[in-house]
Amino acid sequence: MTVERLHTRIIVIGSGVAGLFTAWRCAAQGPVLLMTKRTLRDSNTMWAQGGIAAALGAGDSPELHRRDTLAAGAALCDVNAVDVLVNEGPDRVRELVEAGARFDLNARGDFKLGKEAAHSRRRIVHAQGDQTGAEVSRTLIERVQSSPNVQVLETARVLDLIIVNGRCIGVRVSIEGRAAEVYGEAVVMATGGLGQVFRHTTNPTVATGDGYAIAHRAGARMADMEFVQFHPTALATSENPLALVSEAVRGEGATLLDGTGKRFMPEKHRQAELAPRDIVAREIFRAQERTGVVHLDARMLPGFETRFPGIFRLCTARGVGPRSDLIPVTPAAHYMMGGIVTDLDGRTTVPGMYACGEVACTGVHGANRLASNSLLEGLVFAERVSRDVASLKKHGIAAPTREAWDVPELADRGAAQVAADDVRRVMWQYAGIDRTARGLRIAVREIDAIERRLPEGATEELNMVQTARMIAQASLLRKESRGGHFRSDFPRAKRKWRETHIEW
């Protein structure tokens, strides 16, 4: 097969907030090629109901935001990264407004700020109540599409990075089934999350953990892969992905009831329903085991359909009327705190390769992400990446001369789907909300067995397997409970693990 060879200055992989913002900012410096596995609108960002946390209101400050972030992170946050996040965040939100983002405002024309779990102040910026991610995506997509310096390649599936003399100089990619190699001065990984390696997730079907596996194969340092955040309140249905019932609903006063109709969170944590996500998710899981089901009671909230129009539509489409019915909820895999290790400018341990957004491990989230810090992280560190790559000079490494290669053709789609479903089953059962050494060892063995029977050409499923294995192995190594990682055989946090990161 003839291999198409493309050249640009900056290669950006991913079309969520981090990828779009990076591409937009880098376009001022020269040519950018933005690649995405499906379309520009297929990303976790587009699905994000929650808002953007930033110290924008009266009585708030970056220091207060810093304290809340560090408290949620369970002693594993990088303090310097958190300082960057909270101090640079407000400017990034204002720049979105200047770029055309329409956020919710109060009667005075100021940001209408909400409050979510573990925040000490109202500091969450929303758009259309619960459509913040969609509004951020819309704004940035318009900016990217209007830039003459940005070339967009949709349905472009990255297979691997091209490494020469230890430096990343490009990517091997399948563009609608055609083999291509794209070369540039830098590659920015902004591939998003990995929720689809679990049976129950709020992440769209594109979130199969590709970026983690691709970066790991290229030799990038990875860290904190055991810290998966399970959102406490996904709408309990048989769908994949599950519809999300935003934290903001609890922030406005909705309460959690077990199968007997009893409210259980006040006796579990002083912040009750607004406790950190890992605690709420775990207590819902336990209540489900005790009483079968858990419901969210939002019947007392005035104007639910105007405050949360998207959630109202999601519920009513499934036969649940939030004004009169209890909403059935369940925890679901939602966000990865770990990933590709970066410095404060998004540089990875592989020269020429950057990472930002959910796929990156910047250190801002520690063991447990503070609600609505994810979109903010994508904005702040994408800006830092764009500033750093501005100083890049041509590396002078010639593209390797190689024979033509073929895009791996999937031999057996049915077998690949079975393998993907098996990964999800194993990870939910053994490496989900409640983990044990015995279960994690079973998970690793079963994941190894799944990899051995993968059909030829199952590249996405291979990425799922390799990403799942990193999660299971890291979870086995961390013999304590902290943040999003809970071991029922080691149910307490241990001091010796406070500043320990499991790395590859």
What class, by secondary structure content?
A: alpha/beta
CATH superfamily of the domain at 231-334: Succinate dehydrogenase/fumarate reductase flavoprotein, catalytic domain
Relative helix content: 25-40%
Q: Major β-sheet, in short?
A: 5 strands, parallel
How much β-strand is present in the residues? Answer: 15-25%
> How many strand units?
19
Strand order of the largest sheet: 7-3-2-11-18
Description of the molecule:
There is one protein chain. With 504 residues, this protein is an alpha/beta fold. Among the domains are: 231-334, Flavocytochrome C3, Chain A, domain 1, CATH 3.90.700; 413-497, Fumarate reductase/succinate dehydrogenase flavoprotein-like, C-terminal domain (Methane Monooxygenase Hydroxylase, Chain G, domain 1). The protein contains 14 helices and 19 strands. It has a five-stranded parallel sheet with strand order 7-3-2-11-18, covered by helices on one side. A four-stranded mixed sheet has the order 1-10-9-8. It has a four-stranded antiparallel sheet with strand order 13-16-15-14, covered by helices on one side. It is globular, with a radius of gyration of 22 Å. The relative contact order is 0.17.
Short overview:
With 504 residues, this protein is α/β, with parallel strands linked by helices. The chain has helices spanning 17-26, 44-47, 62-72, 79-99, 132-145, 210-217, 247-251, 277-291, 304-307, 309-317, 374-389, 413-430, 437-452, 459-477; strands at residues 4-7, 10-13, 32-35, 52-53, 113-114, 124-125, 150-153, 156-164, 167-175, 178-183, 186-189, 222-223, 228-235, 255-258, 294-297, 327-336, 339-341, 353-355, 360-361.
